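Page 37, continued from 36.
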């Protein structure tokens, strides 16, 4: 929201709502195919295929939707609850793990990750810790006594205002829900995280847990690439910025800059992002 506020200060009309559909009309122009980068070996939903060469990518239409063009979006206004339409010639889909709900052919799924925030018992120094903590087995029966110890890797970040943020590994047990408000939190996973980091810090153990939460990060289901997908989709006027996996915070400024170049200058100029071209896999 703070980014939206900054944009508003510069004159952008920010509307908060939930997009329910993208509207299309027939396109008269044929969009150019994606230019494959030198080593193109991406295949949707599977490992790299030795038979999918750059030439074969070039010879197929750049998108199943290449005869459509964007004409607007339909959304439900968060404040009024009414359904409205915004006519548009350019739409950028930046809906993370929810991308395929609006654009079903996008091979994007969600990985759930739990996190907690803690007020430590006394202030901590400004470090981020990428841990490997060995949890000894807790034998409940003689059968368990030979189990190897479990190694877990919670990440611990010092935040302003005497807060610590801890996040753990992802799981795919619960599919991406309709909205962020419907994300299911597995309290036991949060408690595991708290126990893990408490085992290496008295400051955390004696601190106060202030939040238990979970969220999804967008995963690209394509062999040979970890994503993201940034650029044109092959549907005229529809662009995409998604599939950032666990690097979306880091990559956000570059993604935004490159998208603005594509929209306003016709192509990405500050980096060669052919490898990220969504048209190669959509
Ligand atoms: C625990 C955890 C730790 C992480 N740590 C790091 C890190 O240290 N560094 C890093 O770089 N990255 C990190 N990431 C990854 C990073 O958070 C993601 O890569 C990034 O948030 C993806 O950004 P996005 O904008 O594509 O998607 P999101 O951040 O998921 O944003 C998508 C937005 O679209 C909205 N939306 C969805 N559908 C609709 C709709 N129909 N209408 C309107 N709005 C809609 C959602 O409400 C959401 O606000 C972490 C992720 C997790 C879960």
């Amino acid at each position: 929201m703070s980014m939206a506020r900054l944009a508003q200060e510069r004159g952008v009309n920010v509307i908060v709502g939930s997009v329910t559909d993208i509207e299309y009309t027939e396109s008269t122009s044929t969009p150019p195919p994606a230019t494959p980068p030198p080593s193109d070996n991406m295949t949707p939903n599977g490992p790299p295929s030795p038979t999918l060469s750059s030439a074969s990518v070039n010879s197929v239409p750049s998108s199943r939707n290449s005869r459509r063009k964007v004409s607007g979006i339909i959304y439900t206004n968060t404040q009024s609850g009414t359904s409205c339409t915004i006519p548009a010639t350019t739409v950028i889909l930046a809906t993370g793990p929810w991308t395929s709900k609006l654009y079903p052919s996008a091979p994007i799924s969600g990985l759930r990750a739990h996190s907690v925030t803690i007020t430590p018992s006394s202030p901590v120094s400004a470090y981020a810790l990428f841990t490997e903590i060995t949890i000894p087995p807790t034998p409940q029966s003689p059968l368990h006594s030979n189990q190897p110890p479990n190694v877990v890797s919670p990440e611990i970040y010092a935040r302003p205002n005497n807060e610590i943020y801890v996040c753990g590994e992802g799981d795919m047990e619960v599919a991406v829900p309709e909205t962020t408000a419907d994300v299911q939190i597995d309290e036991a996973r949060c408690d595991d995280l708290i126990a893990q980091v408490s085992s290496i810090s008295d400051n955390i153990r004696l601190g106060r847990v202030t939040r238990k939460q979970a969220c999804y990060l967008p995963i690209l289901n394509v062999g040979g690439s970890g994503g993201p997908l940034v650029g044109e989709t092959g549907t005229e006027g529809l662009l995409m910025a998604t599939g950032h996996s666990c690097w979306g915070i880091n990559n956000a400024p570059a993604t935004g800059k490159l998208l603005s170049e594509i929209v306003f200058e016709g192509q990405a100029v500050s980096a060669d992002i052919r490898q990220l071209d969504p048209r190669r896999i959509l």
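Residues 41-65 have pLDDT under 50 and may be disordered. Flag for discussion at group meeting. The pocket of flavin-adenine dinucleotide is lined by residues 18-19, 94-98, 102, 113, 115, 167, 180, 215, 217-218, 242, 244-250 (CB under 6 Å).
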